Amino acid sequence: MLTKAAGHEAVPHRFYSSRYVGELSLLLPERRVARFSVLDMYGNRLDKDVPVADILPPFKGRSVAEVRRLAGATLMPLEVQPQGSAAGPPVQFYLSIRHGYLVQKE
């Protein structure tokens, strides 16, 4: 029973650990990419650079009420749709806007 419970804990931990964004950086103007910094299952930092054009706008076409609900959620999904030679299925990251803060405005 304990092994089964541990297995059920490991699956969501592994899924969210590589998708929960600890730091999101815009690397402008040199490169038009966003850097998603996540942790792997073992706590190692992984930086994933994504072209800004590949990020699907999370609030586009949504009402003010929907934007407030999404922004106030503990985890907000942010989808990235790879284009060109890296095209494939969308990748979903999770941001915590409610608990995050802006480090450098410019």
What does this structure look like?
InterPro entries: Tmem186. With 106 residues, the chain is an alpha+beta fold. The protein has helices at 2-17, 64-72, and strands at residues 23-27, 33-39, 45-51, 76-80, 91-95. It has a three-stranded antiparallel beta sheet, with no helix packed on it. A two-stranded antiparallel sheet has the order 4-5. The protein has one domain (2-95). It is built from two helices and five strands.
What would you call the shape?
A: globular
The radius of gyration is 16 Å
Distance between the termini: 52 Å
Order the strands across the largest sheet as they lie in space: 1-2-3
Tally the beta strands.
5
Largest sheet: 3 strands, antiparallel
Helix content range of the residues, please? 10-25%
- Report the average pLDDT across residues: 81
